[in-house]
Amino acid sequence: MWCSELSATEVGSAFLWPPPASRVRVGLVIPSSNLSLYPDVRFKTRLAGEFARVASIFRVSSLAVFRDPDAEESDHRLFVKVLKYMLVPPYLRLRVYRLDPELRYAGSLPPLNIYPHNPEGRAPEVGDVRYGLVLDEHGAVEVGWRRPCRLVEPSGTRVGSVDLFEVVSLEPFLCRRASGAGIYVGYEVVELNSAKDLASFVEGFQLVVNTSKRGVAFSKVLSDPGSVRRFSTTSSLCLLFGNPKKDLDEIAGRGLRIDLTVNFIPHQGVLSVRTLEAVAASLAALNLLLTSTLK
After folding, report:
1. Do 200 and 98 belong to one domain?
2. Last residue of a domain, one of 162, 177, 192
3. CA angle 163, 89, 57 (to 5 degrees)
4. Both 57 and 200 in a single domain?
5. What domain range includes position 236?
6. pTM of the prediction?
7. Which of 117, 114, 166 is closest to 141 using CA atoms?
8. What is the pLDDT of residues 190-222, one digit of tens each?
């Protein structure tokens, strides 16, 4: 007999739209050699887009691409370019990105569908936050509607820039620059071109966790009150990922700060886990811990 305090018809509050920003600033480090393992450019493009998609699902704040020794320069460049391309909403991409041979397979990318992209295709409402493109020095901004909105304060406007804007009036159609504070608006793309850049990046986080099948099982972390407290009270956390052949600590060598090495997939059923799979599994497990107080 099923015994539970939960009703089969109970409705929870675990889905909110727009989604709130994560209370913990989460960063990921992913070596660009993850693309170099595959010969097909179409697959490389799609893989980079899937990393962006998974990061957005779990409200990751920053996605850092590490140019490791095993990476091809062209793959590092493609990885970074695709991540930035994904952040631009579909209604702006033809304006922002002209024909680019490196993005010739961009049509295979999954939609990011984050809130500032207006994935529902709604008409603007006061308070909406959207990515927009500044069209001229007078403050006209394209936000994916039938006509541009106008900046309330156009001074200092840089034509051609893409930024967050909040709709403040419908008639006239006006907007202002927005910080996006309090809601999830996507990730920041960070390029790490050396081991020194990598070391500097991780120092910006309170907790740095290396992911590895050699690490302590996450289930053990959850059973240790001190470790749970450490994860639950941190304001920023960085997850380090390697490639299917090496963990990041093996790639970067000694000197990289690591506070804890964790196996987020204990008793994995396959010999090796692909990095995209590891990112999804690790973020899913971490999300359960960070949102454990939700009703």
Report:
1. yes
2. 177
3. 100
4. yes
5. 25-112+184-293
6. 0.93
7. 166
8. 999 999 999 999 999 999 999 999 999 999 999
